[in-house]
């Protein structure tokens, strides 16, 4: 990979980076507006005719979008997203899928096996990422760098 040397390349990359940040901020704003709209819609529908299944599905969907918003916010702040946050969204999406299909017999053994394999893989990634974060925090504490640790 070659180094960026010309002034025009640096200027173009700066503008593209600003545009990218603007798009990410717009997505974050739209996500939060959609979450507020889903909460209002869930409340109105629950008042009109309460259905525990629909309410639970709505709540899980709201949680998924809040996780998406958290990822967008982390990207805006740090320009990096930890893998464990992406895995959390995957687990929530699988839980929502299982809630939508209350009758697990409709899924079939292949789909249930696939979901179990996905959950196991995501659990493995999540625990590895968590262990890596813990080791990094422990290293910073051992070396007297608590001030460098962030959320």
TrEMBL record:
Record carries keyword Transmembrane: yes
UniProt keywords, alphabetically: Cell membrane, Membrane, Transmembrane, Transmembrane helix
InterPro entries: P_starv_induced_PsiE-like (IPR020948)
Membrane-protein topology: Multi-pass membrane protein
A GO CC term attached to the entry: plasma membrane
Coiled coil (UniProt feature): none
Main location class: membrane
Domain of life: Archaea
Cellular location(s): Cell membrane
Pfam families: PsiE
Transmembrane intervals: 12-40, 55-78, 108-126
Protein name listed in UniProt: Phosphate-starvation-inducible E-like protein
Organism: Thermococcus barossii
Lineage: Archaea, Methanobacteriati, Methanobacteriota, Thermococci, Thermococcales
């Amino acid at each position: 990979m070659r180094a960026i040397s010309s002034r025009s390349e640096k200027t173009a990359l700066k503008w593209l980076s600003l545009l990218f940040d603007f798009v990410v901020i717009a997505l974050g704003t739209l996500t939060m507006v959609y979450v507020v709209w889903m909460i209002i819609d869930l409340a109105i529908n629950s008042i009109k005719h309460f259905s525990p299944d629909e309410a639970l599905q709505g709540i899980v969907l709201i949680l998924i979008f809040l996780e998406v918003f958290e990822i967008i916010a982390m990207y805006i702040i740090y320009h990096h997203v930890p893998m464990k946050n992406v895995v959390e969204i995957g687990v929530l999406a699988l839980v929502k899928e299982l809630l939508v299909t209350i009758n697990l017999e409709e899924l079939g053994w292949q789909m249930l096996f696939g979901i179990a394999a996905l959950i196991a893989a995501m659990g493995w990634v999540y625990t590895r990422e968590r262990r890596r974060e813990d080791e990094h925090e422990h290293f910073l504490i051992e070396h007297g760098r608590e001030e460098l640790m962030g959320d």
